[in-house]
Amino acid sequence: xxxxxxxxxxxxxxxxxxxxxxxxxxxxxxxxxxxxxxxxxxxxxxxxxxxxxxxxxxxxxxxxxxxxxxxxxxxxxxxxxxxxxxxxxxxxxxxxxxxxxxxxxxxxxxxxxxxxxxxxxxxxxxxxxxxxxxxxxxxxxxxxxxxxxxxxxxxxxxxxxxxxxxxxxxxxxxxxxxxxxxxxxxxxxxxxxxxxxxxxxxxxxxxxxxxxxxxxxxxxxxxxxxxx
Length: 228
Description:
By secondary structure, the protein is of the alpha+beta class. The chain has 2 domains: about 5-45, no CATH class; about 55-225, Gcn5-related N-acetyltransferase (GNAT) (Aminopeptidase), CATH 3.40.630.30. It is about 30% helix and about 30% strand. The strands form 2 sheets. Strands 3-4-5-6-7-9-8 form a 7-stranded mixed β-sheet, sandwiched between helices. Strands 1-2 form a two-stranded antiparallel ribbon. The N and C termini lie far apart (about 60 Å).
């Protein structure tokens, strides 16, 4: 009987965390190829079907998610900085900041199996950068903040699924609209929000940073908003 020698180690990815990998050193080559592929997927060398839709589970974050969320925000911030240079988007936040967000707002997380791959927050306290005079008056609006999708999950429908769930959560709050601001720069996600049904309502410069305001008006009929 052939004794298979196995090399065991930890492979680490800044977005998805770490995983123990057992890589056969002899034995059937198919086993080795499978393990090698798993390593490459985890560390980001290989991405499976980059444009294929990724189905996720979406839920409210808890305090136990704070560290993983902080790592996700940091990963997205670093990716934006690599692609667009230094900017306000280069500040990823901290575990303490995530804990504060969880306590004062509703933080949604999207999971693909176990790892958190996307997040956003909904808050009723208006951010300083929001000027309500640009938005449609409604009884109650919530503000969408801190949206982040792991680089490996971008372009695969994760962000749209998260926005759809956010609209449902906001409607049940109850709220009649979602407001947000996006960077008026190449690092901004303005076009993504437009594709999700948001309408541009104004452009401002806040403390030297150009911003675009967007709103999504919510109807009791979900066909009229991002869930369509």
